[in-house]
Specification:
Strand 13 (182-189) and strand 14 form a beta hairpin. Strands 1, 12, 15, 16 and 18 form a 5-stranded antiparallel sheet that branches. A 4-stranded antiparallel sheet has the order 5-4-3-7, with no helix packed on it. It has helices at residues 3-12, 85-93, 134-137; strands at 16-19, 27-33, 44-48, 53-58, 74-76, 98-102, 117-121, 128-131, 139-144, 148-149, 157-158, 165-176, 182-189, 196-204, 208-212, 222-223, 230-237, 245-256. The chain is mainly beta and 269 residues long. It is globular and about 50 Å long.
Length: 269
């Protein structure tokens, strides 16, 4: 990349927040139906039984032809081939009619830690988000990434790796009440590949107030390990049960070094 191109990407990047303010609000992964790459269905819903069946319907029926997935649309997430978030994301991405993004989940997270979901639409521009079950996972997690669905057309998936995105965390402010000690770990990873730890685990004790870049550490950034990777910050409790959270506030940015995107998120010609 040219130096000036990289400098311009950072100049254009705007800091944004990731905040966890309540249980069961960590966005784990997203799924989306792409009619132009499938049979052209006008609707797609996905339902999920925690740790069990994930059921996909296209136009109210079991998907067939280019939309075919699972067994008549049913994927058993207790099966060893589909029992982790990474396996589910990879499976959906292997079928042209669907897309998936691993968001704040770690690929090895089990589907038993993902909240159940009644049938909901995966047809919209932003896809369908699935969330971590805080009591089952014992974690709180946020993610900084430029990857997203812009629409469910052929070119509606904007990817970190293709856009040479560089993501950072510039501020961490956490206050947790826990019955036992816990940890803070920062990961870096890209879709389809196991994440790597880039910082931590840092021990958190009960009633921890943890701040970085506010107490004499301004200018210390946590950067994704490689260009095109997302950066994930996770708090975990040693006993597997998170206590109450009074503050989980992070600030970061994502620079689009390829400069393919313009302000509305679309690609330049």
């Amino acid at each position: 990349m040219r130096v000036l191109q990289q400098q311009e990407a950072y100049a254009l990047a705007k800091p944004y927040e990731r905040i966890v303010a309540a249980d069961d609000t960590d966005s784990a992964f997203l799924l989306q139906y792409v009619p132009d790459k499938g049979t052209g269905g006008a609707a797609c819903t996905i339902a999920f039984i925690q740790g069990g069946a994930m059921t996909v319907l296209v136009d109210g029926a079991a998907p067939a032809g280019l939309d075919a997935i699972g067994t008549a649309g049913v994927i058993d997430t207790s099966d060893g081939d589909f029992d982790t978030v990474g396996e589910i994301v990879d499976y959906f991405n292997s079928i042209a009619a669907y897309r998936a993004i691993c968001d704040a989940a770690i690929r090895s997270d089990t589907m038993a830690t993902i909240l159940a979901k009644s049938a909901a639409s995966a047809f919209g521009d932003n896809g369908l988000a699935f969330f971590s079950d805080t009591s089952a996972s014992g974690t709180r997690t946020v993610c900084f990434s430029g990857e997203h669905f812009e629409n469910n057309g052929k070119n509606g998936h904007k990817k970190d790796r293709e856009d040479a995105c560089e993501s950072f965390i510039s501020k961490i402010d956490i206050n947790l009440d826990m019955s036992d000690n816990g940890t803070l770990t920062i990961y870096s990873g890209r879709q389809g590949v196991a994440e790597t730890i880039i910082h931590g685990p840092v021990t958190l004790t009960d009633a921890t107030a943890f701040q970085k870049n506010l107490d004499g550490l301004v200018g210390t950034f946590y950067k994704a390990a490689k260009r095109g990777e997302r950066i994930i910050l996770r708090c975990a409790n040693d006993a597997g049960q998170m206590g109450s959270i009074t503050q989980f506030h992070t600030l970061g940015l994502t620079a689009v070094v390829s400069q393919k995107r313009i302000e509305d998120g679309s690609f330049r010609p």
